[in-house]
Automatic annotation (TrEMBL):
Gene name of the encoded protein: Usp16_1
InterPro entries: Papain-like_cys_pep_sf, Peptidase_C19, Peptidase_C19_UCH, USP, USP_CS
Organism annotation: Mohoua ochrocephala
A GO CC term assigned to this protein in UniProt: cytosol
Full protein name: UBP16 hydrolase
Pfam family, one: UCH
Alphabetical list of SUPFAM superfamilies matching this protein: Cysteine proteinases
Listed PANTHER family: UBIQUITIN CARBOXYL-TERMINAL HYDROLASE
GO molecular function, one term: cysteine-type deubiquitinase activity
GO BP of this protein: protein deubiquitination
Classification via Gene3D superfamilies: Cysteine proteinases
PROSITE patterns: USP_2 (PS00973), USP_3 (PS50235)
Domain USP: 1-215
Keywords, in A-Z order: Hydrolase
């Protein structure tokens, strides 16, 4: 769906992203880079229907070749609907010539993350006046090994049921006011082996997938 927004507010976010100053090598830096404002020029110019119509006229001769008009543009990917469950998939491979190489670098991630700096100012399921969209970590998938072989393990938090998630799914909005991580016990799961672990152990893992549930 294509919509026309006020140019002054089209690229505005729910919270000021310029105050973030995210640390390199963190999930905040990854999100900041993924949602950065891009300028489309030269071969990346955008096909503009309005400019084309203005140039060729509203009624073109069917026999004549229509000349499409391309224009410079700005592009930014922002979240327009905050999900009940946030799943972040980290790209853990890079090209090395004609081969793929696994990226083993540790990416820092928090127990509670605020998505507001990455949400559009008109985010659909955020109450008016709210400048925070908070999520609590409850699951991590980790991969050990190489691109050719390896092993997947998981960290999962056993916790009380989050009733606010059903409100989000069924009604599109939650009345939750929690701003702290959901209380519970973390477990490390590897095949049939399950053992309790500390939250520091979880946060030091080389995450491949991150699972967060919405708090606010």
């Amino acid at each position: 769906k294509v919509s026309t927004d006020d140019p002054e507010t089209a690229f505005c976010t729910l919270a000021n992203r310029e105050e973030l100053n995210p640390e390199e090598g963190s999930i905040h830096h990854c999100l900041y880079q993924f949602t950065r404002n891009e300028t489309l020029t030269e071969t990346n110019k955008l096909l503009c229907d309005v400019c084309t119509q203005r140039h060729c006229g509203p009624k073109n001769n069917i026999k004549s070749e229509k000349k499409y008009v391309y224009t410079n543009a700005k592009k930014q990917m922002l979240i327009s609907l905050a999900p009940p469950i946030l799943t972040l998939h980290l790209k853990r491979f890079q090209h090395a010539g004609f081969n793929l190489r696994k990226v083993n670098r540790h990416i820092k991630f928090p127990e509670v993350i605020d998505l507001a700096p990455f949400c559009t100012a008109k985010c659909k399921n955020v109450a008016d006046g709210n400048t925070k969209v908070l999520y609590s970590l409850y699951g991590v998938v980790e991969h050990s090994g190489t691109m050719r072989s390896g092993h997947y393990t998981a960290y999962v938090k056993m916790r009380a049921m989050n009733n606010h998630l059903s409100d989000l799914v069924l009604r599109g909005q939650s009345q939750a006011l929690e701003t702290e991580p959901v209380k519970g016990q973390w477990f490390h799961i590897s095949d049939t082996h399950v053992q309790p672990v500390s939250v520091s152990k979880v946060l030091s893992s080389q995450a491949y997938l991150l699972f967060y549930e919405r708090l606010l």
